[in-house]
Amino acid sequence: MSGEGWPRSGKALSLPPELVEIATDPAPMRAVREKAAEIVGDALWDSLAKRWSPRSCQTLAWAANRIDRERTALHQFVGRVLAGIVVPRPVGTAKKFVRAFIESMTAKMPLPIDALLVKYALGLRLTGVALCAARLADVTDCACLRDLFLSKAKELTKNGLAAEAQHWAATVS
Q1: Domain assignments of the chain as residue spans, ordered by start
Q2: Is residue 98 a contact partner of residue 87, using CB atoms and an 8 Å limit?
C-alpha cells in the first residue's frame, strides 16, 4: 500500500471533547463491536481485536477513504458506459453534447449501490473507533474517529455519533 490517501497523524487535529466522550461511551461502541464480530465471525474478530493498534486503525481509515474515492470513479465509469451505449459513435456536435450530458448527469446522480458503499465505509470507520476505544488509552489518535469528524463534522454532535453507531449496528445484516 502506498502512502497516497493515508490519513495524517491526528496530533494536529483537535477533536471536540464531546466527540471523544461519545467515542468512549460503551453502549454504542459495544453495539458496533458486536455487529462487526457477528459479520466477520468470532475467530477473525478476536484476531483483529488482539492485534489492534493505531496503525491498524490508520489502515482501516485508508480503506474507508478508498471506498469513498472509488465510488466517485464508479459514477464516472457508469456514465461513460451508458453514454457509449446510448450514443455509440458521437459524430456531430449534437451527439457529442448528448454523450457529454449523459456522462455528466450520471456522475452526479445516485446509483443503487451508493447507499451500500457509504454503509461499508461507515462500518469500517465505526469499527475502528470501537476497537480504538476498547484497546487504546487515547482515542484522540484514532484515525477512524478523525475521519468521521472530518467527513461528518456538521452531523456529528454528541448524540449524532451514538445514533450513527446504533443505526449502523441495527441495519447491517
Answers
A1: 16-171
A2: yes
| Interval 94-124: pLDDT, tens | 888 998 999 888 888 888 899 899 889 999 9
pLDDT in tens, 27-77: 788 888 888 899 999 999 999 989 998 899 999 999 999 998 999 899 999
Among residues 122, 141, 127, 130, the alpha carbon closest in space to that of 13 is found at 141
C-alpha cell at 81: 458506459
List b or e across 134-150, with b for residues whose CB sees 16 or more CB atoms inside 10 angstroms: ebbeebbbbbbbbbbbe
CA torsion sign, 27 to 157 to 14 to 7? positive
Quote the pTM value: 0.74
